[in-house]
Amino acid sequence: MPDDFLPRAAPRATERPAPSWAKKPPPKSKAANRTTKITARKYAAPRDPHDHAHTIAEKVLDAWYRNFGGSSIDVPLGTVAALCLLRNVPGIADWILNLQPEDLPGLFKEVYLGHWINRPDLINRAIRLHDWAWNPEPDQQQLRAVHAVTHAAVNTGLFDLTGHDDPWRRSEADVLSPLLTGLRHKSDKKWRGEYHTPASITDAMAQMTVDAGFVKPGMSFCDPAVGSGTMLRSVAQRLRDLGLNTHDFHWYGNDIDALSAGCAAVNAIVWDLGPHCLIGHADSLAPDDDYAKAHAEAKEAFEQRNRYLDTAHTLVAWDQAFALLDEVMPQAAAV
Predict the structure, then answer these.
(1) Which ranges in 74-175 belong to alpha helices (H)?
(2) DSSP, res 102
(3) What are the residues facing 253 on neighbouring strands?
(4) Within-domain flag for 137
(5) What is the rounded distance in angstroms from the CA atom of residue 133 to the CA atom of residue 101?
(6) Structural domain includes residue 181
């Protein structure tokens, strides 16, 4: 099966001009000359998970800009998003830290493709976060910056927040929200009206509105300006505190910004919102029905996945048949 069957993002009409620091000669990478094995640092994480998430974002931002990553903010954001989708199995941090820069796009493609099998709708929605990894001729300086971002995230304890098997532990904070807002230029945020609600406020709202005597399985929760999904995270944690399963509820988030919707889609997987979660990318104030559009796109994503899987199963069956034929034919000729 080819590795380019996920839909690609449409090319951008115009690229933002490179900032002044990007005109300086980039430093030479030391990764190619490394012979000693790297081990993950023991990071003393802040007690508050939200403070920890902000610290990770600050370290990632510093690594990206210090290593002259460029103005494509989807690249560092997609790097951290891919790492958030991994579980913290023994040895994984050390293994990732010992990868070379050119190895990382392949790793991230495998991560996204692995989750695409189960949730093609959400991975398709996150296309802006992983589209860059399919570039057949990646920019080497950008890869070095991705390498630095990966080290910064892992060594700042990202897996301590997002790598747990327990979804409650994985949902204690939103790592992608402070990173996205930190990567946005001030003028971008003002033009887009993009100001993510702080987790302390969404947690308080969830505590007040999700009442134990009112909420029942089968109910729906909707956020028409979902951002990276922080409000959905707070509601999910409130449901778990009440002993309820997030899989028994319906979730819908929509955002006009593709990167925000992509972050919400990845977070929906990280936070295990369940099979009834739908993330849309549309203007909630437009006359069109954004929910119907998102539902149709999700349906097509699952149908596309089924078509590719059917093709893959057919190819495997043909390969097995030809292998059996190659084994039988010499024996028949000998008889």
Answers:
(1) 74-84, 92-97, 104-118, 120-125, 127-130, 140-155, 158-162, 167-170
(2) G
(3) 223, 279
(4) yes
(5) 12
(6) yes
* DSSP annotation string for 168-227: HHHTS--SHHHHHHHHS-HHHHHHHT--PPPHHHHHHHHHHHS-TTT--TT-EEEETT-T
Cβ atoms of residues 77 and 263 within 8 Å? yes
**Domain ranges, residue 225:** 49-291
Terminal-to-terminal C-alpha distance of the chain: 38
DSSP-based three-state secondary structure for 18: coil
- In this prediction, residues 260-275 reach a mean pLDDT of 98
Place of tokens 């005597």: 213
Into how many domains does the chain fold?
1
Average pLDDT score, the chain: 88
Q: Which amino acid is at 84?
A: C
The answer to whether 94 touches 40, Cβ cutoff 8 Å, is yes
Average pLDDT over residues 56-78: 96
Q: Is residue 304, in this structure, part of any structural domain at all? A: no
Sheet strands (E) in 236-315: 250-255, 277-281
Entry pTM = 0.85
Q: Is a pLDDT exceeding 70 seen at residue 13?
A: no
Residue 18 lies in a domain: no
Q: Which two tokens stand for residue 333?
A: 């000729």
